[in-house]
Input
Amino acid sequence: MTIFNTPILSGIFHILARLIMRVLGWRVEGKLPGLPKFVLIGAPHTSNWDFLLFLGIIFTLRANVRFMGKAELFRSPIGFFFRYCGGVPVDRKKSTGLVDQMVDAANKADRFILTIAPEGTRHHVAEWKRGFYHIAKGAGIPIVMAVVDGKHKTVHIREQVFQPTDDIEADMKSIQEFFAGVVGINPRRKYITLKS
Output
């Protein structure tokens, strides 16, 4: 059980999130697909405020999500808190890589929605990190996209899922095209420029 599906508490946070989002002028368009497993990517990631926006979106949508965290965070005495918040520990000292560990976690779970910021940083990047893609491909699960449109204070959830193929370059280009031209919360950090 996580904070996102705890009886009563999750309902209270859902109401609070909707209220706060409304007061701040943010709204969510679309909804998450009714699938048990997928990788949810959110971009552009341009501000420290993105995390609070992420919480508002997740509680508004009543989604039970997971995120990756280094294994040290999940040790006593507060490790239980990070697990309760949806964290999945990743041990960088293991012989199996991060992708393999997340694929294993996805395969073992009945329901698994993994959230990732594909840029991996708030700063401008020329290329995305591809871990999210390899996790989805390895686990045989689709990718769902959430676009953070800071200019219009709207988060667009693409309800149509993207299923990775055997052509990673074409797939990455198609995924990134969905986010092209969008400005995040911090307008000074514009979105990546797509390769031609």
Remarks:
- The radius of gyration is 16 Å.
- The chain has one domain: 9-177.
- The mean pLDDT is 88.
